[in-house]
Design goal:
heterotrimer; A alpha+beta (91); B alpha/beta (481); C alpha+beta (468); A: 91 residues; alpha+beta; 11% strand; B: 481 residues; alpha/beta; eleven-stranded mixed sheet; 15 helices
């Protein structure tokens, strides 16, 4: 089943992924081709499959201990004022 | 002093005092100077390499204990954190990012006195198959500079082939170590999922990727694997390999082993030279005492679609943290509102990453997840079951690493599906978590063809033994650098 | 028919470390961005390391709320962008591949109404945002990641509450429960937050977020019910939406809905394997669970014959019940219960007073024994207790320093009574006909003995003397 990916949908997804697209048409074509290729999945006979997962017993989990991080991480990062990270305003 | 030697041979030479570490590292840096303007394997170099070499030489002089690597110059793909160095993932989004901590594999190498000679070029955020998607320019195949070196660990493969380092660490998500290894005629390895810690590897598709070495010989690979593998309490997805020694008994051979050739991987999509090379490899294995048979894995035909669906979804999430607020590049935030700022900042992703992120936002979204992402997960499960079934019949699986011969820069960059299909033979190992290796096998028109082997989970030792056996039947002509 | 449901977030403040890294779980009181590390700051290449005790404590909460606890736990990513979210996704739990979150399908009784617990999940808290300048002129948001990664247990109930009173009782019960289990200190600011959803007459559900305190929660529910009822009375449709509680104006206001933000692209967290909880661990957690408050109360009433009101106070406060258990024995149960709930309560009714209290179980044992053996009077005991809580001195030291010895020695008491009677000649005359005046005389004796005179003996001696 071919799925027509509309320009609006691409814009919507780009917004969801927080990427400003200057010229949607450029991406529309290639993204459309990629997703069309995935339609091949329709033919795969896999309805009853359950996810294959890695398992770990609870006793192998990290011990609840406070170990401070020795270095002042905030000094290595950008955009900080005093002790805070600065971010743009929220509306 | 010859740069074209294996790592193990290098160690022997240093132990015998035939030359110093400083001399070798110096000559390596000269080689980089000489060739890398054209090849562009490296994004950054370690300006303290000579000092580090000198310090190690002093230790040897004083008869002090020194690590197993003896100052071996190793290059690292630029998506692995080396403390205090720029770690850019070949992206403008991280062009100023200096890693404040060290990846586990780097700590392990350093504790064995390896010298990190530099960070290598790659497709941006490991998304690509030719290294043409690097934001800082492509790398070139040392066999023919007009040709792609493969990707995404292109820089690593080039550096190892061009004698700009003895070994390299890359990352393999869908074939990103094996593919360039095949195109550049080096040995490239993807371990069993969980064998090597991913702590410090900048994630692209974290449920299927592994750090893997690239070397000139299989023994070197085993040597490096001994150092970097093992359970890590900083990575809960690592498994206990009980300190297995991958180098010992590497010459055990393949007598009596059963090898299955994956039918779907030498089908219509494969170049005839590649198919012919594969048949030669099968013959060689038979001469070594193995028994070969044909294996069919139905799900392979859907594996590329499944791989790109899953990896795009995970990438969409793993790359969400690049909002340029804590690390990234210079872009003042005054005057912007939060969402518009980060949307503008994230324009700094290259075109391929942008496309994959859009795909990755689309395929798991409501209304489409059932058809794409969830379906892909089911294909992954079934493929794993099929491969496990196959391993009840055979000990190893064989296929060409890449279905096609190396091609020119720019040739496929505009055809997304053609690019996808380069991974046709490699994604199976990632989706199923199995160890896989590419061994340089033949040249066709002066360009390399690699043969791939897969083994059961945690049977990395047996895999390396089979790879070693095949390697010893191969005599490729010298490369003209 | 009003239907109210709750979504409560409880921080596991009693843990040593965060959910996925070794920074402190209780971030309060530290300079901004000093309780952080590469993992909780979301630096590239870092991986989450799940805290074993957090899983255990969360499971214990699930058990206490009578939930089913699955054998395998799975974690998922909830993807969205926000400055307080270091990775721009939150690691949380879902139940899409069968039961995989900490607890499901539990229930509790609140005021005889059964409230069903839909699910309990373990997840991480985001950081904190501070807006520079006033909100209109704000140009910059300041982010503090100290809180990012703090372990949260989210408890979601079915909309079984019928009125705000039940909600309040439930939340009080939950606070006591969390304290009793030693997983969280509900007194800490922000340790328990709740969102609520309200619907009336089978209509659309309205979610209310941003409620700062339990006190405001009741107000918010009342307001929302009223708002919906007035809309319904005018035949106006109630829209299904999310509203925010405006603390200043004490009303709920519509929050702008953004369609795309509801798209979270949930999928399994690949960096955390599925966690297997074996039956041995579950048994150990069950056995190690402290006795529930309800069970304690019932035990106090049925086994020790303590009055219901006293049992209620004792059982619902861990500080008192711990003290009670340590002090009581077969002979003094009621007396201990009594002294804790009458005399001690006023002295240790705040967190600060409890932290500063020097009282030990040994002190209480001695005190109760001294009262029983008539060494000191009840009144004197109250004075002694106050001093012990303040200074921690031994009972005998306090008795001698404050002169609290029970004057029950007849001759000594007689001497003092004689003194009083000689000073109060008029009262003595009046006492012959007016029994109330005797109390006055007893009071005088008490004054002279600083409350240490044995009241019974004093009365009988005075009565005898007056008759003569």
């Amino acid at each position: 089943m071919k799925c027509l990916i509309l320009k609006e949908k691409i814009e919507e997804v780009a917004k969801l992924m927080r990427i400003e697209l200057d010229d949607h048409v450029v991406y529309l074509d290639r993204v459309q081709k990629m997703i069309e290729y995935f339609d091949i999945l329709d033919e795969a006979d896999v309805e009853s499959e359950k996810p294959s997962v890695q398992e770990l017993p609870i006793k192998n989990l990290r011990e609840d201990k406070h170990i401070p991080y020795e270095e002042r991480i905030i000094d290595t990062l950008k955009n900080y004022k005093g002790n805070y990270i600065r971010a743009p305003k929220m509306i | 002093m010859n740069l074209a030697i294996s790592g193990l041979k290098y160690i022997e030479e240093i132990k015998n005092g035939n030359y110093t570490i400083e001399e070798f590292v110096s000559k390596t840096l000269e080689q980089i100077q000489k060739l890398d303007g054209k090849l562009h394997a490296f994004l950054s170099l370690n300006d303290k390499a000579i000092d580090q070499a000198k310090k190690l030489d002093k230790k040897i002089q004083k008869n002090e204990k020194i690590g197993a690597c003896f100052g071996m110059p190793i290059s690292i793909k630029d998506n692995i954190c080396v403390k205090g160095t720029k770690t850019t993932c070949a992206s403008k989004m991280l062009e100023d990012f200096v890693a404040p901590y060290e990846a586990t594999v780097i700590s392990k190498l350093k504790s064995e006195d390896a010298i990190i000679i530099g960070k290598t070029n790659m497709d941006e955020f490991a998304m690509g198959l030719t290294t043409e998607f690097s934001a800082f320019g492509p790398s070139r195949n040392p066999w023919n500079h007009d040709y792609v070196p493969g990707g995404s660990s292109g820089g690593s493969a080039v550096a190892v082939r061009a004698l700009e380092c003895v070994a390299s660490l890359g990352s393999d998500t869908g074939g990103s170590v094996r593919n360039p290894a095949s195109f550049c005629s080096v040995v490239g390895y993807k371990p069993t999922y969980g064998l090597v810690s991913r702590y410090g590897l900048i994630s692209y598709a974290n449920s299927i990727e592994q750090i893997g070495p690239l070397t000139r010989t299989v023994e070197d690979l085993a040597f490096i694997l001994n150092i970097i593998s093992g359970i890590d309490d900083k990575d809960n997805t690592t498994v206990d390999n009980k300190n297995e020694d991958y180098l010992s008994e590497i010459d055990a051979g393949v007598e009596g082993k059963k090898i299955g050739i994956i039918k779907e991987m030498i089908g219509d999509g494969a170049d005839k030279e590649v198919v012919s090379a594969t048949n030669n490899a099968l013959k060689k294995f038979e001469n070594l005492g193995a028994k070969c048979e044909e294996i069919s894995l139905d799900m392979v035909d859907y594996s590329v679609a499944a791989y790109y669906t899953i990896s795009a979804t995970e990438a969409g999430s793993n790359l969400a943290r690049y909002d340029n607020l804590r690390y990234g590049f210079d872009f003042p935030l005054e005057g912007f509102e939060f969402n518009s700022y980060i949307s503008k900042a994230r324009k700094n992703f290259g075109p391929e990453v942008t496309r994959r992120l859009i795909v990755g936002g689309f395929v798991p979204s409501a209304g489409f997840a059932g058809k794409y992402f969830l379906k892909a997960l089911k294909v992954k499960s079934k493929l794993t079951a099929e491969v496990n079934e196959a391993f009840k019949k055979v000990d190893l699986l064989l296929a060409p690493t890449v279905p096609i011969c190396p091609f020119k820069l720019g040739e496929k960059i505009d055809d997304p599906i053609a690019l996808f299909l380069i991974d046709f033979n490699t994604v199976t190992a990632n989706l199923t978590g199995k160890p896989a290796i590419s061994i340089p096998f033949e040249l066709s028109d002066g360009l390399p063809i690699g043969i791939q082997l897969l083994a059961k989970s945690m049977h990395d030792k047996a895999l390396l033994q089979a790879a070693y056996a095949l390697q010893n039947t191969v005599h490729l002509p010298e490369i003209q650098l | 028919m009003t239907k109210i449901g709750l979504e409560i977030h409880c921080q596991l403040t009693n843990l040593e470390s965060k959910l996925f890294c070794t920074c402190r779980a209780n971030y309060r009181g530290y300079e901004p961005n000093t309780n952080v590390c590469p993992i909780c700051m979301g630096l590239p290449g870092t991986l989450p390391l799940l805290n074993q005790k957090a899983v255990e404590k969360a499971t214990t909460i699930a058990m206490a709320l009578n939930c089913k606890t699955p054998e395998k736990l799975a974690f998922f990513r909830k993807n969205y962008f926000y400055p307080d979210l270091p990775k721009n996704f939150q690691i949380t739990q879902l139940n899409v591949y069968g039961p995989t979150s900490i607890g499901l399908e539990g229930k509790v009784l609140v005021d005889e109404k059964e409230i069903r617990i839909l699910r309990i999940q373990l997840e991480e808290d985001p950081g904190r945002l501070i807006y520079e300048g006033s909100s209109e002129k704000t140009q910059i948001t300041l982010v503090d990641y100290n809180r990012a990664g703090t372990p949260l247990v989210e408890i979601v109930t079915e909309p079984d509450f019928e009125n705000p009173k039940q909600v309040r009782l439930f939340l009080n019960m939950l606070s006591d429960l969390l304290e009793n289990l030693s997983v969280s200190d509900p007194e800490l600011e922000g340790a328990i937050r709740a969102d609520v959803n309200v619907s009336i007459q089978g209509g659309k559900r309205v979610e209310i977020k941003n409620i700062g305190s339990f006190h405001d929660l009741e107000k918010a529910i009342h307001f929302e019910i009223t708002r919906q009822e007035s809309l319904a009375a005018r035949n106006i449709q109630i829209i299904q939406e999310t509203r925010h509680w405006d603390e200043q104006r004490k009303i709920t206001i519509s929050a702008r809905r953004k369609e795309e933000e509801l798209e979270y692209r949930y999928f399994l967290e690949g960096d955390i394997p599925w966690i297997l909880i074996d039956s041995q661990t579950l048994d150990r957690l069950k056995n190690d669970m402290p006795e529930s408050i309800i069970s304690k109360k019932e035990r106090y009433i049925s086994k020790y014959k303590i009055p219901s009101q006293v049992a209620e106070v004792l059982s619902s406060d861990k500080f008192y019940s711990d003290m009670f258990e340590q002090v009581r024995d077969e002979t003094n149960v009621k007396d201990v219960a009594n002294i804790i709930t009458t005399d001690l309560m006023g002295l240790v009714d705040t967190k600060e007073k409890r932290e500063n209290s020097k009282l030990t179980p040994q002190h209480l044992v001695e005190l109760v024994n001294a009262i029983k053996s008539n060494k000191i009077t009840r009144t004197a005991a109250k004075i002694a207790l106050k001093e012990i809580v303040k200074s921690g001195k031994t009972l005998s030291d306090v008795i001698s320093e404050l002169d609290l010895v029970h004057v029950s020695d007849a001759s000594e008491l007689t001497r003092i009574i004689d003194q009083v009677l000689s000073e109060e000649i008029i009262a003595v005359e009046q006492a012959k006909t007016n029994p109330d005046t005797i109390n006055y005389l007893i009071g005088k004796v008490m004054q002279k003995t600083k409350g240490n005179a044995d009241p019974k003996l004093t009365l009988s001696i005075i009565q005898k003397k007056i008759q003569t």
